[in-house]
Each structure stands twice: as C-alpha cells, then as structure tokens.
Design goal:
By secondary structure, chain A is mainly alpha-helical. Chain A has one domain. Chain A contains seven helices and no strands. In chain A, helix 2 packs across helix 4, helix 3 packs antiparallel against helix 4 and helix 6 packs antiparallel against helix 7. Chain A is elongated. Chain B contains seven helices and no strands. In chain B, helix 3 runs antiparallel to helix 4 and helix 3 runs antiparallel to helix 7. The relative contact order of chain B is 0.15. The chains are: A mainly alpha, B mainly alpha. At the A-B interface, helix 3, helix 4 and helix 7 of A face helix 3, helix 4 and helix 7 of B.
Chain lengths: 163, 162
C-alpha cells in the first residue's frame, strides 16, 4: 500500500469528505484556538528553563501543566489530523507540510532527550538555584523548533503542488 | 464613515505598499502575529487557569501574573504591530468582513475587561467567586478573539464576497 493510496483512503472517508466540502473551517478554528490555548504551556516551560520565569520552580510548573499539555496535544493533534484527512493527497506532497512533520518529530525527539537525560540535572539544580546548560539548550531548541513549525505551517498555503 | 476613511488612508501608506510589494511579506508577518498570539493568549490563559483553581494552586495568582507580565506584554505589542500590518494589505475587505468585526469587538471587550476587572483580580483582589468568574470571562473572550481571527481567513462571509 503506497502513501498515496493511504492518503486517498483518508480523503475518501466520510469525515474527510464532509470537512473538505462543507465544514473546512471547523477543524481550522479548533486547531488555531488550540494553538493559542496550549502554546502557552510550551512557552512557560521553556521560559522557566531559560531562567526567565522564576516562580514556580520548573519541576512544579511542568508537573502542574502536564494535564493541560496533554489536552492541548489531543485538541491540536486531532483537529490537525482531521484537516490532513480532508486534503491528504495534496498535503503529503507539499514541501511545507513535509517540513512541518519533520520539525514535529524533532520536537518529540527533543522532549524525549530532555525527559530521559536532562531533567534529572534540572531537579538537582533547583536546590542550588543553577539551571544546567543542557536544560537551557533544550529549551532554546524547543522554542526554535516550534517557531519552525509555525513557519512551515504558513508555507503550506503558498507552495505546491496544486496550491 | 470616519473609520472607513481611516482604513482607506492606512491602505495607501508606504508601509501598506511595502506589505503588498512582495508575496512573502504577508505570511511572514502572519507568523510573527501567531507568535504574539501564543505569548499573549497562551500565557494569559495560564493565569486564568490559576484563577479558576484548576492548576498551579500552590502559587499565588499575583506572583504567577507578575512573572508572566513582561511576556504577555511582549505578545500584546507584537500583535498590535503585526495586526495593523496585515490589515493594511486589504483594509476594505477586512472592514466589510463580519468575522473581522466580531474579532475586533471581542478584542475591545477583552482589553476593557482586563483594565477594569482582570487586572485587579489577578493582583489578589476579590472573592474566590469573583476570581472564578473573571477567569472564565477572560478565557472565553480571548478564545473568541482567536476563533474570529482564524474565521477571517476561512469563512469569507463578508459583504464583499456575497
């Protein structure tokens, strides 16, 4: 089964068809409101690691915001997937979309590295008041990658194929 | 109407011409607009969650709010600069768009509510019930602003299009 036939199948589903033909604006609005609502949770974590938000401490902050981030991932991810379903055969060949997927995978990789390798140092650092360098780098990479995701998203509408 | 004249003038300024001169200008400014939205709305919403007592209840509202204040302000400045730049590319269309009018009405209410009520509440004033109400009102207003903003691009129900 090729990528194209999978995308075609997604597009031909009743959801894909309904969104494309009648209610394309609904998942778009959810996607953007979700970005605004939950993007703040990403930003506040990164600002905390960069030492720009001092209170509460990072461990408390990230633990408290975790359910909110999961909610965001579900709303933004689900609405994003529905948008993809409505236009899959064009989107998968779109260079902006391809970059967006790659950048999102890098976001996930960065988060995984942070949780498995960097976070322990942050916890230790909270006692001494020093944020370790790898944590700062991790936060800066996260912010840059998310800006990249925004840029790639805007590019989708401006490049081919058939756009 | 004076507002229409003002927008007309704004669409003819050198800045507007510069915005229209290259195809990449609009999406580039749009990205800056979105970064501003995440800073402004995304962080304002965290303060609202705290007011509602959902999250970060161990941190006083006033502490959280003042820690985030420089960043929400930065976001507000960003959208306040980039918004009119986006508007300048086609002021007539925005003026006639119902989604745009909705967004601007919600924005005006959100700013007014912030100055008159929210500002005091997040400094710790008011009963728990007042804090909750203020959190909900702010949350709904900011979401409406963003929803209206996205609708401008996708709905196109303006007088212009019918």
């Amino acid at each position: 089964m090729s990528i194209h036939s999978i995308c075609q199948a997604l597009e031909d589903t009743s959801i894909g068809t309904a969104v494309r033909e009648r209610m394309y604006y609904i998942p778009q609005i959810f996607h953007l409101v979700g970005m605004a609502l939950f993007g703040g949770a990403v930003v506040i974590d990164d600002l905390s690691l960069l030492g720009r938000v001092r209170q509460p401490a990072f461990s408390e902050l990230s633990r408290q915001m975790l359910p909110w981030k999961w909610a965001g991932l579900i709303v933004v991810g689900l609405s994003g997937f529905v948008i993809f379903m409505s236009d899959a055969t064009r989107l998968y060949r779109n260079i902006g979309f391809q970059w967006k997927v790659v950048l999102l995978l890098l976001v996930a990789l960065n988060a995984w590295i942070f949780r498995s390798k960097v976070y322990r140092g942050v916890m230790l650092g909270e006692k001494t008041g020093v944020i370790p360098r790898p944590a700062r780098i991790s936060a800066a990479v996260s912010l840059l990658l998310w800006i990249g995701v925004l840029v790639a998203s805007r590019i989708i509408g401006f490049v081919g194929p058939e756009y | 109407m004076w507002l229409f004249k003002l927008l007309d003038w704004w669409g003819e300024t050198p800045i507007a011409h510069a915005m229209n001169s290259a195809e990449w200008c609009f999406p580039a400014v749009e990205v800056l607009h979105m970064i501003g939205i995440v800073l402004l709305v995304g962080l304002a919403v965290i303060v609202d969650l705290r007011l509602l007592g959902f999250r970060l209840t161990n941190t006083p509202v006033s502490t959280l709010s003042s820690e985030l204040a420089p960043w929400t302000t930065a976001g507000f400045v960003m959208v306040l600069i980039t918004g009119p730049l986006l508007l300048s590319t086609d002021p007539d269309r925005y003026y006639l768009s119902w989604e745009f009018r909705f967004k601007m009405a919600c924005l005006a209410l959100a700013i007014l509510f912030d100055i008159l009520v929210h500002r005091k509440v997040r400094m710790g004033q008011g009963s728990p019930a007042t804090q909750k109400a203020a959190g909900w009102i702010s949350l709904v207003l900011w979401c409406s602003v963003v929803a209206g903003g996205r609708a401008i691009g996708v709905l196109k129900t303006s007088i212009f299009f019918t």
